[in-house]
Amino acid sequence: MTPGGVIATIHTRMAQPNSVSTPSAGTELDIKSILLLDDDEQLSEALKALLESHNFVVTVVHNGVEGVREVMSMDFDVVICDMMMPQMPGDMFYLAVQRTKPHLCSRFVFITGESGNPKVEEFIQRVNGLVLFKPVQIDELVRMISLAMKRGQASG
Asked: Residue 146: is its pLDDT beyond 70?
């Protein structure tokens, strides 16, 4: 299934009216920021649009070097990180964040197309990471984001 097929299905479900017709005064406080790192520009832009439709503020970067710059400039509620990227792969990005802003490490959700890759699996186990395999389903991504936010709140 192509990412476009998944996205079309998701838009159909999201097009239904939700129970809140007007934003409440506290809505802005509920908006969460996400840093999305993925070298696949089409996928990252599609995920950004979907996440923004769920009231997340999404910053997209396409490699770990750009990600480090963003993390140094602000904190994020969740970091969604592809494992295989040019210049700096996901595990190296995580280690850079661990050295500079360790409180963000509990907020990571890793994405990979490398199911069964022993290096990726060993890293995810070692850091007790949350992981999704491509193709990513939006309901599973939202569930993982929720778990990462809970982990982030628990760790301070």
From this structure: yes
Can you say whether the dihedral through the CA atoms of 7, 13, 15, 20 is positive or negative? negative
* pLDDT beyond 50 at 16: no
The helix (H) or strand (E) run that includes residue 30 is: helix 27-30
Tokens coding 45: 């832009």
User: Residue 80 has what DSSP assignment?
Assistant: E
Contact 120, 83 (CB under 8 A): yes
Supply the CATH classification number for the domain 30-154. Answer: 3.40.50.2300
Q: Does 17 have pLDDT greater than 50? A: no
Domain boundaries, the chain: 30-154
Closest C-alpha among 36, 138, 27 to residue 78: 36
Taking residues 43-60, what's their average pLDDT? Answer: 94
Exposure class string for 49-72: b at 16+ Cβ within 10 A, else e: ebbeeeebebbbbbbbebbbebbe
- End-to-end CA separation in angstroms for the chain: 39
Interaxial angle between packed helices 138-154 and 3-14, expressed in degrees from 0 to 180 and rounded to the nearest 10: 80
pLDDT at residue number 18: 34
